[in-house]
Specification:
By secondary structure, the protein is α/β, with parallel strands linked by helices. The chain contains 17 helices and eight strands.
């Protein structure tokens, strides 16, 4: 179970934000922008959102709500200075209250939307460099047409979104039966009914309030039967991260939340036998994805250091045949020969899920021992897709997700 901290927050809204919301009274649309150290991109995001609202929803009252995590750069100053006075759109820039993390930022957005009785809510990441006004239309139109949850469908560079591609997407598809390509994409549309459901959940003092919020929102929407679709948004160009350096915290929260939800919704996912396509709407809007480098050597080094530290732990968790594969990878000196078989990765993800369930304490420390294996998977993927196009890479990720589905019986067998 998730561990609750001793301090509880009854609201994520500070007094200044609450008074501003009360003075506004009502809005049809609320656009939330959770921010943290985004001084170089926040203005572009606000301007693009304002243009989109003005271009496509000028007949509706809208507010832009920047929910900041206490950035000590100029993020809030830039957000406040961004001039959208030409549009009939209110803007609120505030620091949220609560556990530091994106979840608390979104809680403040949801509270504002609930007070304002907004019919539609959307969220956009603050580090976007490729957002266009059309993103606003593509995300919000389905909500006004009766959908409750709109997930993004991007064009992404083949190595972007390593946690999504290798864990979040195949697990959501396998466990809950919906082929939602970007379950933790960050840019979502929601109905008023769903937002209220989120607010009423007792999760805001848990790890969901950190990086686990996106996977929790997606899973909750599926399990509770909300009407879901995907929106084409073009390329997601943002502050890409090196998995060997930057993603350990995010990995723990996303994977830990996913595993916790597997425990909570065990009856649901055990009854899911196959997956179905999810409708995709809108035209691709924006630029093509930008290529970037992943330091495969650093990922391999991270894995090999992990092997030295956690070999004993891995022997207790992994299948014997997979441990042989891991040992061979550790002994591999040729970087280009570093390849992890797909079934080894699937069993590793499933084995850690089962071990996570049976570990009553120190669950997130357990996930620390999985991160080197994730880095090995990333390095392997870079090798396998080195000469592939983005389209060919997408086929690879779909086949990998199909393998997760085919091996679901293995997960059920070892689960308890």
């Amino acid at each position: 179970m998730l561990i609750l901290p001793s301090v509880r927050f009854s609201t994520a809204l500070r007094e200044d934000a609450r008074k501003k919301i009360e003075s506004i009274g009502h809005a049809d649309i609320v656009i939330g922008i959770p921010s943290y150290y985004s001084q170089t991109t926040i203005s572009q995001v606000i301007e693009s959102v304002a243009k989109g609202l003005d271009r496509y929803y000028s007949d509706r009252k809208a507010i832009i709500f920047v929910s900041d995590g206490g950035s000590t750069d100029d993020t809030r100053e830039e957000a406040k200075a961004t001039d959208i006075s030409n549009y009939n759109i209110e803007k609120i820039v505030t620091i949220y209250r609560g556990i530091p993390g994106k979840g608390s930022a979104l809680r403040a957005v949801f509270e504002a939307a609930e007070f304002l009785k907004a019919e539609a809510v959307a969220t956009f990441d603050s580090d976007l460099r490729s957002i266009t006004p059309e993103w606003v239309k593509n995300i919000l139109d389905p909500v006004f047409q009766g959908y409750d949850y709109v997930t993004p469908y991007y064009k992404r560079y083949k190595f972007d979104g390593t946690i999504t591609n290798n864990i979040a997407y195949p697990l959501i598809r396998t466990l809950y039966g919906m082929r939602i390509r970007q379950p933790i994409g960050g840019d979502f549309g929601m109905s008023r009914k769903l937002v209220k459901d989120y607010l009423d959940a007792d999760v805001w003092e848990t790890d969901v309030a950190k990086f686990g919020i996106d996977i929790w929102m997606t899973t909750t929407a599926i399990v509770k039967g909300y009407k879901i679709c995907q929106a084409r948004l073009g390329a997601k160009v943002h502050g890409e991260k090196d998995p060997a350096k930057d993603l350990s915290g995010m990995f723990r929260e996303v994977v830990g939340t996913t595993y916790n939800l597997m425990e909570e919704y065990e009856i649901f996912w055990k009854n899911v036998k196959s997956s179905n396509d999810v409708p995709i709407f809108g035209d691709f809007a924006g630029v093509e994805p930008e290529p970037f480098e992943i330091d495969i050597t650093e990922s391999i080094d991270y894995f090999k250091t992990g092997y030295k530290n956690f070999e004993g732990v891995w022997k207790k968790i992994l299948d014997r045949e997979d441990m042989k594969v891991i040992k061979n990878l550790f002994e591999t000196e040729n970087v280009e020969s570093f390849i992890m078989p797909g079934d080894t990765w699937v069993r590793t993800v499933y084995r850690y899920a089962q071990t996570f369930l049976s570990t009553e304490r120190q669950r997130f420390k357990l996930l620390n021992t999985m991160i080197p294996l994730y880095n090995a998977k990333v390095a392997s993927t870079v090798n396998e897709l080195a000469d592939k196009t983005d389209e060919e890479a997408e086929e690879y990720y779909d086949k990998q997700a199909e393998l997760f589905e085919k091996m679901k019986d293995y997960l059920i067998k070892i689960w308890k």
